[in-house]
From TrEMBL, chain A:
CDD domains: TPP_PYR_E1-PDHc-beta_like (cd07036). InterPro entries: PDHB_mito-type (IPR027110), THDP-binding (IPR029061), Transketo_C/PFOR_II (IPR009014), Transketolase-like_Pyr-bd (IPR005475), Transketolase_C (IPR033248). It catalyses: N(6)-[(R)-lipoyl]-L-lysyl-[protein] + pyruvate + H(+) = N(6)-[(R)-S(8)-acetyldihydrolipoyl]-L-lysyl-[protein] + CO2. This is Pyruvate dehydrogenase E1 component subunit beta. Its EC number is 1.2.4.1. Its cofactor is thiamine diphosphate. The lineage of its organism: Eukaryota, Viridiplantae, Streptophyta, Embryophyta, Tracheophyta. The keyword Translocase does not apply.
From TrEMBL, chain B:
It catalyses: N(6)-[(R)-lipoyl]-L-lysyl-[protein] + 3-methyl-2-oxobutanoate + H(+) = N(6)-[(R)-S(8)-2-methylpropanoyldihydrolipoyl]-L-lysyl-[protein] + CO2. Its EC number is 1.2.4.4. This is 3-methyl-2-oxobutanoate dehydrogenase (2-methylpropanoyl-transferring). Residues 189-484 form the Dehydrogenase E1 component domain. CDD domains: TPP_E1_PDC_ADC_BCADC. It is an enzyme of class 1 (oxidoreductase). GO terms for molecular function: branched-chain 2-oxo acid dehydrogenase activity; metal ion binding. Pfam families: E1_dh. Belongs to the BCKDHA family. It comes from Eruca vesicaria subsp. sativa. Its cofactor is thiamine diphosphate.
């Protein structure tokens, strides 16, 4: 359950498109602008929480093992020593309980950051997330706002079985009143978490356990304590002109790898990192599809009623006449996640699946 | 071994018999007898040696058995116990892994707990109770008496009350006195709540509002608890506490506006009737899911504690709501966090059609407080003065000692659960009548107020008729008042409207303008 995969991300986090254009297969990942640092997603999240806690005394962290244990995944490492037990609160084991308490504290004006050990356990608290947090501002006609952040790992890890591997992006993103964010790189993690903590609405922040250990280059701007990314804006990770690949979280890495493979075959793929599942950046999605005329969407979660379904519907509704090929959806298998490594691999989208789908969209294969 | 013993003994016997009889009759015979006796001597000592060696081994083995038995069983205890007909009870120790006892096992399984105490072998049974054990959570004494804590104590927790059924203060009772002004105000508000419930209920029956929920029979809890709190105390209600909001200054017109969901409703027509909420009165909006307000109250209490405010969180729950998981989480958390929260449980006997005998098997709710380490009290919820004193004291404790407090207020739900319920279907009409007439909290308190000379029949009729008139006017006005504009459909989903909501709003506006025939007349944007 603690499988940490350290890999160097080849393409992640580059904001300067010029660097991308000049890069060739021979150039290693280290050839970025001098002075640029690397940061793991874990450190990015930790620094984001740390900075927001020091800037605003109302921000506090609560969850299982966040304090003395330094966090189940070490995201809250060092915070207990720095801010004390009142602001880094180790809770008893009751998701329903501590989510309710977090919501109550938010009602009273504090800004809790509630950690779920994984979002699978958030199902035990989902009534509080939706009925007590998401709907409160609306139901109370603006009298009760809930500036709370629910964060934790989401989706499949490595060999953790069905009850620890579900992706909740589609579930939470269907609820009005919630904002749902899914970072990919360290810059995403920092910027979006800071934005989430500052936001007066309840935010569900879906991280990924396997990305925690991954290092990404990070700009000086992103290291500044006032850095913040806008909620509701997607990022074009790689520009292209033949097919649009839209995805979020860990699958962005896979999509970028697939784009590399497609480039070898002469297909120029545009990769979009959604960053924000709700509100969905329909403008960027549709602009890209109108440019390339082909769409491939990828997600780790279950296929029916997924995030990809919403993206496809949006594109068909708004950019139908621009499409040159049927929209392609790649999702996890419609089964509870199996444990055995070979079965698990088959149950999740792989780079080859994305490549094949893109080729199908370009009529290069069946 | 026995044959060796026999031979040795035989040799000894021969020796003893023959030796005195040997004489020097003939040297040959004496030599013969000498060698025979020598042989027997040697045999005897030879066999004696082995006999002793065997005995030694046997003793050693049995000593091991005995010592191991003693270590694991308390051998003496076993031997004594065997003669007892009933097994001795032992207190509830965790049973560690059992030692195989051989022939004793099947008989002694009831008292196996005794085996797990290594100290037992060191001292006698009398000194057992003085020892203490170190476990996570602190030192705990132990006993060798196996005794289960009974599922309920022989006596139920008594109920604190101040006024008897005739409205007279019970002599020697401990209570916080109320001034005339406060006492009269409390009565007025209780009577107002009664009239309000009656009129709104009738309005629902006439189809003018869609839903209503009365607090009939629980007026004392509503008003007296509110009177005992300070305005800064944050209230998280369940749904049968509109009296708390009434006390804090919510007007009858404001109640009516919420029920009709009109433009003046502070809830902007977003909620069903009776889901009142008001920031300025520190009364959180009523939320339908049961018991969710309990852990939220712990969170509010924690926030008040962190901000060092002279206030506490006060939350209400019914008897049925205590079955929810949130009840456990809320109380446990409040205790662990040492949050200033007052939990008030209105035990009114019914959760829709579920009687409390089907809700829990404990002695009500008050006994559950100690399970969480929370100070608790049971109060006569139909006695306004008792409720006032208890809530006032609980509030002081919560704020000054920064701890949660639990109050169980015993009462009866005279009305139906709501306008969607007909309680005569599951309970006797006689029972309802009894509580409505003979155990009415408003009448009981009225007697006390009147006995003090603070209230009269004239005041009564004046109050009731003016309140009734005000309510009818409020309903008429609320009914006529226009509903919310279309913009309110999309506001407050988020703090700031997101782009997709703006687009939807624009789209809907355009549609209404384009197709006015599809929308009700007077429907405005």
């Amino acid at each position: 359950m603690w499988g940490i995969v350290r890999q160097r991300a080849v393409d992640g986090g580059f904001s300067a498109s010029s660097l991308r254009r000049t890069r060739s297969a021979l150039v290693s990942a280290r050839s970025y602008a001098a002075g640029s640092k690397e940061m793991t997603v874990r450190d990015a999240l930790n620094s984001a929480i740390d900075e927001e806690m020091s800037a605003d005394p109302k921000v506090f962290v609560m969850g299982e093992e966040v304090g003395q244990y330094q966090g189940a995944y070490k995201i809250t490492k060092g915070l207990l020593e720095k801010y004390g037990p009142e602001r880094v609160y180790d809770t008893p084991i009751t998701e329903a309980g501590f989510t309710g308490i977090g919501v109550g504290a938010a009602y009273a004006g504090l800004k809790p950051v509630v950690e779920f050990m994984t979002f699978n356990f958030s199902m035990q608290a989902i009534d509080h997330i939706i009925n007590s947090a998401a709907k409160s501002n609306y139901m109370s006609a603006g009298q009760i706002n809930v500036p709370i952040v629910f964060r934790g790992p989401n989706g499949a890890a490595a060999g953790v079985g069905a009850q620890h591997s579900q992706c909740y992006a589609a579930w939470y993103a269907s609820v009005p009143g919630l904002k749902v964010l899914a970072p990919y790189s360290a810059e995403d993690a920092r910027g979006l978490l800071k934005a989430a903590i500052r936001d007066p609405d309840p935010v569900v922040f879906l991280e990924n356990e396997l990305l925690y250990g991954e290092s990404f280059p990070i700009s000086e701007e992103a290291l500044d304590s006032s850095f913040c990314l806008p909620i509701g804006k997607a990022k074009i990770e790689r520009e292209g002109k033949d097919v649009t690949i839209i995805t979020f979280s860990k699958m962005v890495g896979f999509a970028l790898k697939a784009a590399e493979k497609l480039a070898e075959e002469g297909i120029s793929a545009e990769v979009i990192n959604l960053r924000s599942i709700r509100p969905l950046d329909r403008a960027t999605i549709n602009a890209s599809v109108r440019k390339t005329s082909r769409l491939v969407t990828v997600e780790e979660g279950f296929p029916q009623h997924g995030v990809c379904a919403e993206i496809c519907a949006s594109v068909v509704e708004e950019s139908f006449s621009y499409l040159d090929a049927p929209v392609e959806r790649i999702a996890g298998a419609d089964v509870p996640m199996p444990y055995a490594a070979n079965l698990e691999r088959l149950a999740l989208p792989q780079v080859e699946d994305i490549v094949r789908a893109a080729k199908r969209a370009c009529f290069r294969s069946k | 071994m026995t044959c060796q013993v026999r031979q040795g003994l035989h040799a000894l016997v021969v020796l003893l018999i023959h030796y005195p009889q040997t004489s020097l009759k003939t040297p040959l015979l004496s030599c013969f007898f000498f060698f025979i006796t020598l042989h027997h001597f040697l045999l005897f000592f030879f066999f004696l040696y082995f006999f002793l060696a065997d005995m030694a081994i046997w003793f050693a083995r049995s000593r091991n058995i005995v010592s191991s038995l003693r270590q694991n069983l308390g051998l003496s205890a076993i031997l004594i116990k065997r003669s007892y007909s009933s097994p001795r009870p032992v207190t509830n120790y965790p049973l560690s892994s059992r030692v195989f006892l051989g022939p004793f096992t099947s008989y002694r399984h009831e008292s196996t707990a005794v085996e797990t105490q290594p100290d037992l072998v060191q001292q006698s049974d009398h000194e057992d109770d003085a020892q203490e054990l170190d476990f996570p959570g602190g030192k705990v004494g132990y006993t060798s008496e196996m005794k289960f804590i009974p599922e309920s104590s022989s006596q139920r927790i008594p109920c604190y009350r101040v006024l008897n059924e005739h409205g007279r203060i019970i002599s020697d009772t401990d209570f916080i006195p109320v001034s005339e002004k406060l006492a009269v105000r409390m009565y007025e508000q209780m009577a107002t709540l009664q009239v309000m419930d009656h009129i709104f209920y009738e309005a629902q029956r006439q189809g003018r509002i869609s839903f209503y929920l009365t607090s009939v029979g629980e007026e004392a809890i509503n008003i007296a608890s509110a009177a005992a709190l300070s305005p800064e105390d944050v209230v998280l209600p369940q749904y049968r506490e509109p009296g708390v909001l009434l006390w804090r200054g919510f007007t009858l017109e404001e109640f009516a506006n919420q029920c009709f969901g009109n433009k003046a409703d502070y809830g902007k027509g977003r909620q069903m009737p009776i889901h009142y909420g008001s920031n300025q009165h520190n009364y959180f909006t009523v939320s339908s899911p049961i018991a969710t307000q309990l852990p939220q109250a712990a969170g509010v209490g924690y926030a008040l504690k962190m901000e060092k405010k002279n206030a506490c969180a006060v939350t209400f729950i019914g008897d049925g709501g205590t079955s929810e998981g949130d009840f456990h989480a809320g109380l446990n958390f409040a205790a662990v966090m040492e949050a200033p929260v007052v939990f008030i449980c209105r035990n009114n006997g019914w959760a829709i059609s579920t009687h409390i005998s089907e809700q829990f098997r404990s002695d009500g709710i008050v006994v559950k407080g100690q399970a969480y380490g929370i100070r608790s009290i049971r109060v006569d919820g139909n006695d306004a003065l008792a409720v006032y004193s208890a809530v006032r004291s609980a509030r002081e404790m919560a704020v000054t000692e920064q701890r949660p407090v639990l109050i169980e207020a015993m009462t009866y739900r005279v009305g139906h659960h709501s306008t969607s319920d007909d309680s005569t279907k599951y309970r006797e009409a006689d029972e309802i009548q009894y509580w409505k007439m003979s155990r009415n909290p408003v009448n009981r308190y009225r007697k006390w107020v009147e006995d003090n000379g603070w209230w009269s029949e004239e005041d009564e009729s004046k109050l009731r008729s003016s309140t009734r008139k005000q309510l009818l006017q409020a309903i008429q006005a609320a009914e006529k008042w226009e509903k919310q504009p279309l913009t309110e459909l999309f506001n407050d989903v988020y703090d700031v409207k997101t782009k997709n909501l703006e687009e939807q709003e624009l789209g809907l506006k355009e549609l209404v303008e384009k197709q006015p025939q599809d929308y009700p007349t007077g429907f405005h944007i």
